[in-house]
Specification:
alpha/beta, Rossmann fold, Dihydrodipicolinate Reductase, domain 2, 2 domains, eight-stranded mixed beta sheet, six-stranded parallel beta sheet, 14 strands, binds nicotinamide-adenine-dinucleotide
């Protein structure tokens, strides 16, 4: 059995990670949990029948010796905690956003071996997205795409202490919410070369944007429009891919099935119906663990959407297009998504 531990026993751990792990009970067992709030970890362990709980990552790694750690803590701590897990030899599956900057991601990746670090990006793994990636080469050239995250988060949502600030949350909806849609888009369209963006803080008391609009040019020549809002009363996640031979669209909110996709081609025949869920990605991650192979959403793949988010923040700040090539360690946005202006 693969020995799994969960760090951070808040919302996402209970709602998504434990159900996904239960579906893998034939090959994975949850041996321990940890939370800085030790009492919360204790309640979580009792509720889910987990044998041990701990008050810190170090204590958990030392005493439970897990093979795989699910990191479900707020983003501000992800890099340090992920590196701690990797140094113990464990694999780590990090909730999105993986960390606060490309610098942190590159540090995480550099700490790999023998374990790997992979980012949660569950919408890459539903059968619809997988099928689209398979048939995309048969649909002609990609020419246009729309990537819309029209979500609503009320004022109370931002009262959680780690939300609302670059330092603790990493960034705004570009990196925290739209990253799901951007990652699916990038998984289909590949490398981007240039982005031009505007962001605004219009109705929430936060340090970052609550609305962002961007235009992206891909290496293939295709153009995409990325629209992100946390102020949209009618919520929707929408992706549209126009190839020279077909249009493919996906409309859903927080998770899709095959029925949420439409396409103008007979080639659209997804063979099964795997919902986009933590379970879908965990299954692939554990396959990789069993084969001791690099998992999906690690290294370069895990970096893709964070890189586009970095370009969006840099372009909005500089009021000019930003190329992917300029996001090197010499660029302040490589180190922090606010370009160096953390105020709290
Ligand atoms: N993939 C998705 O669809 C999805 C959805 C929601 C949230 N998330 C992500 O999941 C992560 C957690 O979000 P949440 O909503 O569960 O947050 P939460 O605040 O409900 O839970 C976080 C937990 O981590 C604990 N914690 C904080 N610092 C810690 C530390 N140093 N060591 C151990 N425990 C610590 C907190 O006490 C809390 O119990 C975030 O990165 C968030 O963006 C992902």
């Amino acid at each position: 059995m693969i020995r799994v531990a969960v760090v951070g026993t808040g919302g996402i751990a209970g709602v998504c990670h434990l159900p996904a792990l239960r579906a893998q009970a034939h090959r994975a067992e949850v041996v321990a949990v940890a939370d800085v709030d030790r009492a919360r970890a204790a309640v979580f362990a009792r509720e889910h029948g987990i044998p041990s709980f701990h008050g810190s990552v170090a204590e958990l790694l030392d005493q439970a010796r897990p093979d795989v750690v699910h990191l479900c803590t707020p983003p501000g701590g992800h890099a340090v905690q992920a590196i701690e897990c990797l140094k113990s030899g464990a694999w780590v599956w990090i909730e999105k956003p993986a960390c606060r900057s490309l610098a942190e991601w590159d540090a995480i990746t550099a700490a790999e071996g023998p374990g790997y670090a992979s980012v949660v990006s569950q919408h890459r793994f539903g059968s619809g997205a997988r099928h689209l990636r398979e048939i995309a080469p048969l649909l002609g050239r990609p020419v246009a795409a729309l990537c819309v995250t029209a979500w609503f988060r009320d004022h109370d949502y931002f009262q959680v202490p780690w939300r609302g600030r670059f330092r603790t949350e990493g960034g705004g909806p570009t990196v925290g919410h739209a990253i799901h849609q951007m990652d699916v888009m990038l998984s289909v369209l590949g490398d981007w070369t240039e982005v031009s963006a505007m962001t605004a803080t219009l109705d929430r008391d936060v340090e970052y944007e609550d609305v962002a609009m961007a235009t992206v040019r891909f290496a293939s020549g295709a153009l995409a429009s990325v629209a992100t809002s946390l102020l949209s009363r009618r919520e929707e996640s929408y992706l549209r891919f126009d190839f020279t031979g077909a249009s493919v669209e996906l409309r859903h909110l927080y998770g899709y099935r095959n029925e949420d996709w439409t396409a103008t081609t007979d080639l659209w025949q997804p063979p099964d119906d795997v919902p986009s869920s933590h379970e879908a990605q965990l299954s692939v991650l554990l396959d990789a663990y069993e084969k001791n192979e690099r998992p999906p959403m690690s290294a370069r793949q895990g970096r893709q959407a964070l890189e586009l988010a970095t370009g969006i923040y840099a372009s909005a700040h500089r009021r000019r297009p930003v190329t992917r090539a300029e996001l090197t360690p010499d660029d302040p946005f490589y180190h922090r998504l606010d370009g160096g202006a953390w105020t709290s």
